[in-house]
Amino acid sequence: MLHIYSDGSVLKLMNSRDLVMIPVWKGQRILNQAHADSIKEAIGPNVNRLDSGYTIIKYQEVEVDGCEIVVSYLIDGQHRASVLRDYYKDVICEPGFQLTVTEKEVESESDAIDYFNTINNAKPQCWTDPTQIVNKYMMFLEKKFNTNRKCLLIRPGSTNRPYLSSEKLREVLKKNIQKTTKHTAKDVEDFVEKVDKLNKDMLRVFELETTQEKVKDATMKERAITIKFALAYDTHLKWMQGLF
């Protein structure tokens, strides 16, 4: 560790080969290949000039077996990293070099999106980019349901039901937002209200079903009732169809 910033992020050293193994955060903009090519042309053969400009986020995730793991994603610097990644595909035996990265721990997808917007506040945002549109929906949904920071209902990475994986939610949102071109703040708020109503309706059904004998998935439904969150019951999130 080289330095700790006021927001809690840290500046540290990392090997370039380790960096290119870190996946790009799914809330990142779509890679602009022309921009990556311009970086590649500017540095020529001197890839060690790409020794800064990277930001990594770290999530504390709970795997399906209940074990906690720390997962890292590249949230800024993806074009530089793509140049390095392409370089190492052709130069297999060459050792990596030291570079600096900024690393920030986040608790939820909303935290990651807030941080992404903060570090990109000087860059133009492309709100027609499906990934950026999904980020808006993710933030509104987490604001509605993740009211208890000690018990997040929408959680990073893979997770056990009745908690909902933010990764799965992002994936299904991206497929469904193509059904409409309206994504103003009011549109997103209306969507979230529909989801909230659906969640309450599902819980009422679960409460009725669990009073019966031999009900399917009784334990799962009881857990959903306890935390007042039923949206993860359907692993494919088919409930999203028709809400846009």
Strand segment tally = 7
- What is the general shape? elongated
Q: Which whole number gives the mean pLDDT? A: 90
H/E series, N to C?
Answer: EEHHEEHEHHEEHHH
Give unreliable regions as ranges: none
Radius of gyration using CA atoms only: 21 Å
Helix percentage range? 40-55%
Largest sheet: 5 strands, mixed
Q: Helical stretch count?
A: 8
Strand content: 15-25%
- Strand sequence of the main sheet, in spatial order? 1-2-5-3-4
Q: What structural class should be given to the helix and strand makeup?
A: alpha/beta
Cα distance spanning the termini: 46 Å
Question: How would you portray this structure in words?
Answer:
There is one protein chain. Helix content is 41%, strand content 16%. By secondary structure, the protein is of the alpha/beta class. The protein has two domains: 106 residues, Conserved hypothetical protein from pyrococcus furiosus pfu- 392566-001, ParB domain (Alpha-Beta Complex); 119 residues, no CATH class. The chain has a five-stranded mixed sheet. A two-stranded parallel ribbon has the order 6-7. The model has no long low-confidence stretch (mean pLDDT 90).
